[in-house]
Amino acid sequence: MKRLVVTTWLLLIPPTAVVGQVGHAPESSPYRDLRAKHVLALTAGYFGGSAGAAGVGPTDGLIVGARLDLHLGGPAEVFFGVEVADLDRLVLDPTKGEATRVKGTFGQRVTIAEVGLALRLTGEKTWRRLAPYFGGGLGAAFGAGVAQDSSTFEFGTKFHVSPRLGVRWFPSDRINVRFEARNTVWRLRYPTIFFDPPVGAPNEPSLLDPVTMDDTEWTHHPSLIVTIGYAIRL
Q: How much is the pTM?
């Protein structure tokens, strides 16, 4: 009799009820297949960070650019980006004393090119239309000249690395918005004159202490980036 009751109950209940007991029905699952395999995006954000011990490194300004993401398979994608940052540069005259060596803050444009790899934590799916990820990039940064700087310090061309993490939101299959936190790291090189006693004030210390400071310094530049992307086919 017990077996007969159980068998009858299984035959009478609808199949969807059984599915509901073991997991989400496909139409109600929070996971969706990620159809945006390759994405072309415009980027904008704020670039901050350290100006270095001497205070003369470029930092603090808006950054804009473009980025291409190519899906490699599984959770991995490779990206290529070019961005232009309009940053502030403090200009100093190290031959003068502390009270008079500051010439002012001027603008410097830095172009940043990079290639990198990102890994999506949700694989080839989104969770409630979100796809969090982490990754890193490397490339080169090219600084324009600052005419007001006669100290022989130049930003020039810098190799950089940039670990990052973020999340992409897919309001539709083709449109996506990305929020990314990034840390760009490059190395500044200081000229010899920064370590020499100022000619105009020989009794004052040099701009940088030659005993405790090297002529190179790694600086970190956290930035917050927003991108608007469109899925493309290649």
A: 0.84
